[in-house]
Amino acid sequence: MADPPLALLAEVTHRCPLRCPYCSNPLELERAAGELTTEEWRRLLGEAAALGVLQVHFSGGEPMARRDLASLIAAASEHGLYSNLITSGTLGGERELKEFADAGLRHVQLSFQDVDPANNDRIAGLSGAHEKKTKFAAAVHATGLPLTVNMVVHRQNLDGIGEMIDRARALGARRLEIAHVQYYAWALANRAALLPSRRQLDEATRIVDAARETLKGILTIDYVVPDYYGVRPKSCMSGWGRRFLNVTPSGKILPCHAAESLPGIDFPSARDHTLADIWYRSEAFNRYRGTDWMAEPCRSCDRREVDWGGCRCQAFLLAGDAGRTDPVCALSPDHGVIETALQDAEKTPEGFVYRHFS
Ligand code: SF4
Ligand code: FES
After folding, report:
1. d(CA 130, CA 241)
2. Which of 331, 335, 338 to mutate to test the pocket of ligand 1 (most atoms within 8 A of CB)?
3. For residue 268, what are the contacts with CB-CB under 8 A and spacing of at least 6?
4. Rounded to the nearest whole angstrom, what is the distance from the C-alpha of residue 165 to the centroid of ligand 1?
5. In DSSP terms, which residues pair with 112 in a beta bridge?
6. Rounded to whole angstroms, what are the CA distances from 121 to 113, 130, 140, 150, 327?
7. Relative to the alpha carbon of 294, which ligand is closest?
8. Average pLDDT over residues 286-297
């Protein structure tokens, strides 16, 4: 019997004013008409709390594109769930944040594309985005909600990492998450333009290590080296169906945000099944749970219950089979695809291919 889930990522909409070239949403986006209704979300959040979920992360797309977001936060709060808002900060401001805080919101995570306004707006595909985000950070501060600044980094902004740390402090953040792009969906299509070089990565890591020392007790910095440069994979989602579940805008329940890219798996909908049924009994959640599904080299590896064989979606995207060892593992027979990608990262960067919602 699996343990209950700890956290739920609520992708309340795919609508978003930004067009980031590393967007992790699926290539096929959900239309507004297909989204779960307020009542459906309220029921689902109640089921999640009964199942044992402790935290809900409201995300998207841009979650503030939903006019009923305050009602959803209130529902989470009524069920005793800790709620976090993950936003681009480009829709709304102090009035909405005050409403969310009154509804029980506990934390805001605000993403930036860069500290440099022109580069931020170029990457986001939206002019004026940086200015809106800066005002939004001030509004978070005014409401008294704790703020985490999320800087998404890659080869076209990584050299500004020192300024990013300074900016997070200036914006009043308690925590800075420096998140290297992960190569799924649009990010995989733009990988040659996004993957940093070894020189860039080493310099960025040196700056972060030094800042962590000098800012101890002032600013917490989360920073993980991208797995393409590691020798063992990340424990993606802490293992398939072990801790997290992800709800798509139309109510499909997934073990991770990218799972719909995997063929041959029927992901159940909260419209047709209870969350408990899906979590404990669905074929989708049991397919890669635990270690029974593993082949060699994972099956006999002493890290099989540490990283759970890495990421199933990355294994499918890079090796064509979600049941294979994640190719970022140096023990994987498919590891050559990573070495080729890293060699390409030393070449001249390419332009971005932007996503469009329409
Ligand atoms: Fe992890 Fe499998 Fe690599 Fe071992 S062989 S480190 S379990 S991915
Ligand atoms: Fe799907 Fe890693 S993103 S298992």
Report:
1. 36
2. 331
3. 252, 253, 277, 278, 282, 284
4. 33
5. 151
6. 8, 6, 21, 16, 33
7. 1
8. 97
